[in-house]
Amino acid sequence: MSLSNIGGRLFYLAVEGELHSFSLRATTVRALVDDVSSWMVARELILDGFRYDRIIDADVPEGREDHFSPTDAESRIAWLSRQREQDLKVHFKPQPWEQLIKVLRDMGHQEIAKQVAIAKQEQIRKHKFIFHAKYGALCRYGYRPGILIAWALGVAVVWAAIFKVGADMGVMAPTDRHIIEDTKDATCRPEGGGNWTTCASLHSHGYPAFDPIVYSFDLILPVISTQQTKDWAPLTTRGCKSVNRFGVCQSHADEGDNSNVSGYWPLGVAIWLLARSENLAGWIFGLMFVAIVSGLIKKD
Q1: Which of the two residues, 251 and 84, has the higher pLDDT score?
Q2: Residue 63 — very low, low, confident or very high, per pLDDT cuts 50/70/90?
Q3: What is the residue extent of each domain of the chain?
Q4: Which value, in Å, is the radius of gyration of the alpha carbons in the chain?
Q5: Cα–Cα distance between 135 and 152 in angstroms, integer?
Q6: Contact 190/250 with Cβ under 8 angstroms?
Q7: Which candidate in 6, 101, 170, 218 could, as Cys together with 29 as Cys, close a disulfide (CB 3.0–4.6 Å)?
Q8: HEC string for the chain
C-alpha cells in the first residue's frame, strides 16, 4: 500500500521495462511531470487517492530537447483507463477522474476537463442502469446541453413527416365537432374516401389549414402554442361496417354507407400515441435543459 507525501514534483519519465502494477495510492505531490509511454510499462495502475496540484513540463538545461507533460484529453483518459479492473469496473473509484478534472480546470483547460468528465460518466455507464446511458446519449451527461436542442429538432422533423403521411391518409381531422357534424361533403370524410386536410368546403368557411411542420413543433415546444394542436387532432375512431369484440374496425364503411357503427381506427390511434409521445419528449427535453443550465442537475 502506498502512502506518501512528496513535497515537490514527481518525475515519471523515460521509464522502461515491464511492471505488473504501479501504485500511487494516497500519495500527494505538488506537481506531476510525466510522459505517456512511461505509464504503459505497467499492466495496471493504482491511482485512488493520488493527489497533485498541477501537471507541469520538465525544466531542462538550455540546448536540450524540451519535455512537455501531456494535458490533452486522449492521453489523460488513456492514463486513467490503465487503472486496475476492480477500480474501473467492480468497485468504480471516481477520485482519480475527479482529481484530473479539477487540475485541468484549475490550469484553464475547461474543454479538456469536460471531455475527461464525459469519459468518466461513460466508464460508469458501462456498469450502471440503462437510464444512465440514455442520459449520456441525450446531453453527454449534462456537459453538452445543446445536444438536447438537436434531439428536439430531429424528433420534430421526423414526426412532421409522420403527420404528413397520416394527413394524406385522412387521419387528421378538425377538433371542432360542430364543424364535423355540419359538414356533409363526403369528400371531407375518411370513411367516404375523403380527407379533412384537403376539404374545400371546410377551408371555404375559413377553418385553418393543417400544417404538419407547425403541428409537430407545436407538440415538441409545449410552452409555445400556435393553435395547430387546438384546431387539428388525429381521428381515433371512424365509421365501420363492423367491429371486433375490442371495438376495433374490421371493415370500413363505403362511400354513401349509412351505417352508424363506429370503432377504433388503429392507424389513427397510432398517430395519436405518436403525438402524445412527442409532446412528452418536448417536456423531458425542456426540463432537462433548464435543470442542467440552472445547475439543478450536478454533472460531476
Answers
A1: 84
A2: very low
A3: 4-128, 148-289
A4: 31
A5: 14
A6: no
A7: 6
A8: CCCEEEEEEEEECCCCCCEEEEECCCEEEEEEEECHHHHCCEEEEECCCCEEEEECCECCCCCCCCECCCCCHHHHHHHHCCECHHHHHHCCCCHHHHHHHHHHHHCCCHHHHHHHHHHHHHHHHCCCCHHHHHHHHHHHHHCCCHHHHHHHHHHHHHHHHHHHHHHHCCCEEECCHHHHHHCCCHHHCHHHCCCHHHCHHHHHCCCCCCCHHHHHHHHHCCCCCCCHHHHEEECCEEEEEEECCCCEEEEECCCCCCCCCEEECHHHHHHHHHHHHHHHHHHHHHHHHHHHHHCCCCCC
- Distance (Å, rounded) from C-alpha 220 to C-alpha 151? 10
Q: What angle do CA 268, 271, 273 make, to 5 degrees?
A: 110
Write out the three cell numbers for 79.
492514463
Q: Which amino acid is at 72?
A: D
Mean pLDDT over each residue of the chain, to the nearest integer: 84
Number of residues written out for the chain? 300
- Alpha-carbon distance values, 123 to 90, 115, 178 (Å): 11, 12, 58
Report which of 234, 226, 217, 237 is spatially closest to residue 282, judged by C-alpha positions: 217
Any residues with CB less than 8 A from the CB of 242 and at least 6 apart, and which?
A: 249, 250, 251, 261, 263
Calpha distance 203→140 (Å, rounded): 46
Q: Exposure string (b/e) for 154-171, b if CB count within 10 Å is 16 or more? A: ebbeebbebbbebbeebb
Are 62 and 20 contacting, i.e. CB atoms less than 8 angstroms apart?
Answer: no
Interstrand relation of 262-264 and 237-243 (parallel, antiparallel or unpaired): antiparallel
How confident is the model at residue 299, as a pLDDT?
60
pTM: predicted TM-score of the whole model, two decimal places: 0.57
The cell 530537447 sits on which residue? 65
